[in-house]
Structures are given as C-alpha cells and as structure tokens.
Amino acid sequence: MKKPIAIISVLLLVLAGLGTWFFLENFKRVSKERDLPAQGEARYNPLYALKLSLRELGQKADTHARLDIESLKLQAHDTLVLYAPPNGLSNTQLDALLAWVEGGGHIVLSAPNPEFLSEGDTIYTKLGIYPAESDDECLEFLPTTGKKPDFLCGSRFLVDDLEWFQWLHGDEELGYSLGRMYWGDGSITIASNLRFMGNEQLKRAGARELTYQMLASSMGKGRFHLIYSTDMSPFWLLLIKHGWTLLVPLLLLLGAWLVYRSQRFGPLQASPNQDRRALLEHIGATGEYLFHRHLSHELHLAVLALFNTTLRRRDPMTAALTGEAQIAALAERTGIDPQKIRQALKPGSLRQKENFFHSVATLIQLRNQL
Predict the structure, then answer these.
(1) Percentage of the chain surpassing pLDDT 90?
(2) pLDDT digits over 195-215, tens only?
C-alpha cells in the first residue's frame, strides 16, 4: 500500500514542477499605467496642476474661482493669470486693475475673442488691443526637450501702438500670437489663448516650456494669483443676448402646450350618461304597474310579509300575539298610534291611494323601529 502512495506523490510533485516551470517561462509580471479621472479640486479647477507646479518651484501660488480685486489684495510684483477672458468688468474695476499693474503688477491674459467680446469699455480697449480679422492662426515652436514642434493656436490680436510692447510674435497684417507690453512699472503678457496652461495640456513638454517662459520674469518677486473663471455678465443678460434663438421656440412650445392642456369652453361631444340604479328603477316601475293594475293588495301583502318576518326575528314574543294584544304591544314598543297600526295591519279597501300609502308607510316605519 505504501508504494502506490509514494508513486502518486512523486507524480504530483513532477506535475507541479512542470506547471511552475511552464508558467515562469511563458508569463511575466508587467506594469501598466492608466490615467484615472480627475478627483477633488482637479475636477473643476483647470489651473490646479499649474498651482502645484509653481509651488514645487518654491513660488507662492493660489487659485481663485472669481476675479475679486478687493479680496485678492494684490501687491506690487504679484502676477495675475486670467485663464478666461476678463469680460464683464466695470470701469471702476478696470481702473483699479490697471492702477495695480502700473504700480508693478503683471497680468497674463488671452487675446480678445470677437465672438464673446462685451460691449463698452473692456481691458482690451483700454490697452489698445483688438481682435484680428483673419482666421485663427497657430504659432509653431520647437521645445528644447523634444523633436516634434508644438503649436499655440487661437485668435490673433492687433495693437494700436507698437512702442508699448517689449516683444511681439506675429506680423502687423495677420495679427500677433504672443506679446508683452509695458504699463507703468508693470507689464501685461497676451497670448492667443491660455489653454496650454490647463491640467491636461501641461503634460506636454511644449506647454510646460511656454508656460515657464511667460511666467519666468515674475519668479521670486511676488505671489501668483491664478483665476480660472472671471466675472461675467448676469445670466439673464447672457440669455437675452445669446440665448434668444433657443428661448423663443421654447416659449412657443410652452404656449402651445398650455393651450392644448387648457379646459375648452363647451364640450366637443355629448356627456356620457351617468350610472343608473337599474334594479331600484325596475322595482319602482313594477310597483307602479301593479298599483295601476289595481293589484295594490298584493303589494300590501308583500310589505306585510316583510314586516312579519322582521318582527319574528327581532321580537318573537310580540310576533306570537294576535289581534288587539299585538297592536297594543307594537304601539308600546314603537310609540306609534294604535289606530295607525291597526289600519296598517288591516287596511280594508286599498284602492284609495291615501289608504294604501299610509298603510305601507306605517308598516315600513314599524319595521325600521323594531
């Protein structure tokens, strides 16, 4: 018995060894990186990666959802990055913002977009910058760490006075893609767009280098204020200006639906017949037929039989009585005049309507009071 067990054990060990050898020869551990969806602040803040990058470089950086000049408490040599076009600012806010730049601040903003440019004074009109009429053009540049060129695409801009600018990329006819202008002791940097500063775009080497070049002059001088959304016009005003093409059809559909669901004046078809108590109507019609056929005696007998049945069930002792004794007992029990009870039990001629109706009514009253 011991030899078969030993042989089986050896065979199992050999098979296990062969299986282990086959697995190790044909399979190996491989690591794979997967991009997980953004969580936390990175889900709604497109400048979250830029803030962390600046802090890693030893800079003071904060992100804000709105441009509130009073709460920001901007200091000289601070940098303000306006990720979205700063439309909707009042003249007071614009004057305060440019006064801060004149004192040594630095603004980074995108070029004006002709489709979303607000009416009246804007920061672009005060700076003498306006959108170019040509289509969007791309600025091609080669990152130092890569062989493939990168591109900066967006709306180009034109300027009123070239002497205010430290440098510009582009030409006077088609417009410029990048530029930096002097404004007092401060400066303003303008790019076709600032999408390259977003969380996903900063993964590219070209976007990182371009962002560093635009912010390098402010490194180590002050705090970076990154605004990923700027003050806009009221929502109702935006709907009136740009959403009327959708609102008008929706209002028409709403009006049509209200008319369709509203109650009409007068029915379109005859109202259906209400439910009828057919059995009771049939019984009433049968009684009228028998009465008009001079068969009122049979009707009285039917009511009397129903009364006697109820009397035997509820008061057997009174039901056992007869004649005047029964009439007296019923009068004492119900309080009804004995004469009416006597007429109901023995009505005589029933062809007279009053005699018949009084007799039947008294029997029903007696039955209900038992």
Answers:
(1) 8
(2) 888 888 888 888 888 888 889
- Spatial separation of the C-alpha atoms in residues 235 and 239, rounded to whole Å: 6
pLDDT at 236: 66
Q: Which long-range contacts (CB under 8 A, 24 or more apart) does 292-301 make?
A: 294/351, 296/350, 296/351, 296/356, 297/350, 299/356, 299/360, 300/347, 300/350, 300/356, 300/359, 300/360, 300/363
| Structural domains of the chain in order of their starting residue, each with its CATH number | 40-239 (3.40.50), 279-369 (no CATH)
CA atoms of 285 and 297, how far apart (whole Å): 17
61-64 and 224-227 beta bridge pairing: parallel
- Poorest-pLDDT segment among 25-34, 135-144, 211-220, 255-264: 135-144
